[in-house]
Amino acid sequence: MAEVTAATVKELRERTGAGMMDCKKALGETSGDMEAAIDWLRTKGLAAAAKKAGRTAAEGLVGVAVRGTRGAVIEVNSETDFVSRNEQFQDFVRGVAELALEQTGNDVDALLKAGWPGGGSVEEKLTSNIATIGENQSVRRFATVEVGQGIVVSYVHNAVVPGLGKIGVLVGLESSADKAAIEPLGKQLAMHIAAANPLALRGEDLDPGLIERERAIAKEKALESGKPAEIAAKMVDGAIAKFRKENALLSQLFVMDNKTKVEDVIAAQAKEIGAPVALKAYVRFQLGEGIEKKESDFAAEVAAAAGVAA
Known about the structure:
This protein is of the alpha+beta class. Among the domains are: 1-49, Orthogonal Bundle (Helicase, Ruva Protein, domain 3), CATH 1.10.8; 59-179 and 280-291 and 299-305, Elongation factor Ts, dimerisation domain (Tetrahydropterin Synthase, Chain A). It is 45% helix and 18% strand. It contains eleven helices and seven strands. The chain has helices at residues 6-16, 20-29, 34-43, 87-100, 108-113, 122-133, 179-196, 208-224, 229-247, 262-273, 298-306, and strands at 59-67, 70-78, 137-146, 150-157, 164-165, 167-175, 277-286. The protein is flat and about 70 Å long. The two termini are 34 Å apart.
């Protein structure tokens, strides 16, 4: 049984928006299991979040690069936010994003073995940066998007410098239309993805394990409602249908007007330009997703950056 501490209660509050006593009770009911506690709160209607919070848990930068009909997005982590403003670190992230364009798949080890412009490998350049900057860094992940005909559009939300920031998005639009005609649509879709954080392109593409988890929560809520079994079953089906609709990109409401489905926005643009347009793929990276970061105060970060004891 995991210990229920003030820190775990605080984390649960941040991730769900539930009250302190409710969070404490949820952790007690679930033997301190964070994910189970989130589900427990949601079955009681006490959690504000509908999916795992995308709270940034590591520092560094997300970088994007596009060349022709291919794009790459990469995440490079550092210990403190100070490093993300370091020009040497920024140049490294920019360079690795360009090299990622030449990779097949998403094998970070293969990328680290790739040659660095000017000599050596990416890994050797990274090691050199760690030594000169004085802080641990790592290439965490990368992904690519490619279309046969059309355009790949990149977008960085709240960019620190062009192409580098905390959230990076790639959108691949397949079309025979002139690129200039579909680029504005690609940019708007990328901005939508950055804001709405869809979990899959289509409802049927959502992770089956995630759907089963949502179904279990919906079933528990339906049973607690006291409704007859047949009505409870319809409530569960309705909840899952709603979850699929709200978390699949093509069925989400477009953030630009909050009333038109994304797939209808794309269809309208295709009709306007007189050529088919298909959203083939997308990628969204948010810095630090899924990484646990030990808490530190600002004074400690300053001391660490300066190389002195706090």
